[in-house]
Automatic annotation (TrEMBL):
Membrane topology field: Peripheral membrane protein
Protein name from the UniProt record: Cell division protein FtsA
Function: Cell division protein that is involved in the assembly of the Z ring. May serve as a membrane anchor for the Z ring.
GO BP: cell division
Classification via InterPro entries: ATPase_NBD, Cell_div_FtsA, FtsA/MreB, SHS2_FtsA
Domain SHS2 positions: 5-193
One Pfam family matching this protein: FtsA
CDD domains registered for this protein in UniProt: ASKHA_NBD_FtsA (cd24048)
Assembly with partners or alone: Self-interacts. Interacts with FtsZ.
PANTHER family linked: CELL DIVISION PROTEIN FTSA, CELL DIVISION PROTEIN FTSA-RELATED
Amino acid sequence: MNEYIVGIDIGSYNICAAAGKIDKHSEVQIMGITSSNCSGVKRGIVVDIDNTSESIKKCISSLERMVDTKVTGAYISLSGGISELVWNKGVVAVSSEDREIKRNDVKRVLKASKIINIPNDKEIIGVIPQQYIIDGYDKIKDPIGMCGLRLEVDSQIILAQSTVVNNIFKSVNKAGIKVLGVVFEPIAISSVVLKEEEIQRGIALVDTGSDSINIYIYKGGNLRSISTLPLGGSIITNDIAVCLKIPVSEAEKLKIKYGSVAADSLRDNFKIEVNANYNNKVKVDCNVLNQVIEARVEELFSLINKEISTSEYYNELSGIVIVGGGMALINGIEEFGRNILGKLVRIGIPRYIGAASPLYATAVGIVKDVSNSMKLKNTIDVDSSKNDNLPDYKKIIEDEEETENGNRTNGFISKIKDFFTDFF
């Protein structure tokens, strides 16, 4: 099992899991990917641990058959919709006599950046260093080995309600899977669908889920803002079910198979036979179906546009990338969105064989992000001590593992890693 990296994306409608490994060229290869329905999560929050656990177990069981091995541990993602970013600065004096910046100096400055006032119901779960500053010289990515008197860091502090995160951990653990680590969702997605040039120039990443839409704005190489809309693809499905008087399950199938907002979607009309209640079959008009979809998609894009346009980076955005399964799978969505948003719109698709779908962006992104960290041997560990059988997210420590010759092999990266924990 050690050769595989498994990532689990716990969504409101689907649980997606991907398994990958690093090949001889140090590139990650996706060896298996699967999904299963889930009704135990609402807007990124677990509302039914048993249901979520069963969905995870079903998904992992399917993945095990694909890769022909037993999965005992996995990495999961933490949604930006249940998180909050707070900018802060840390400042320390370089401790060594020769003024060379050591790993311990970086550790101390990151800890200094976490000294902030937070609400009682939230916890600091991670730190994303944006840049280091040495004696006034900024935009330094890795200060270790450089010389200076004063070390500063501009960082983003990630906050989340500990009860929300604990319930996610419990759901995974109850499925018989050990949580090996947590990856911040916007970083995971961006690693497989965004180009570095886009992140530098300015880009909006729109993750359309079943019952919420998370909007992440990047500029200058950094994640600048997170916002969430309390609507998603399920509202389109519900409209179809109500207007066509068919079950929600059948409405979802129609949306995925026949849904279109393309300019010529109403040109060729035909009847679609679907199962109604009590196994009765009814025929629905394809034009009516797409009119219902178009009306609701237009509303959702208008809300997205309203949210994005309030950003101070709006005029600098080069485009908008859509991922997820809520709207990204609808035919013609790129051109339709471009007309409403006034920006270049494209679907974010991971460039991996067998995983080329916006639905799998987060799961594949987790595997990619973890593989990058393994190649760089950079991790941030979280203390595994128990606190009423729940993990303590406050105590973020650095893994100081050393090689046989005494050289330290682990350092910091700009994301949460290895939330090692033991629930029972």
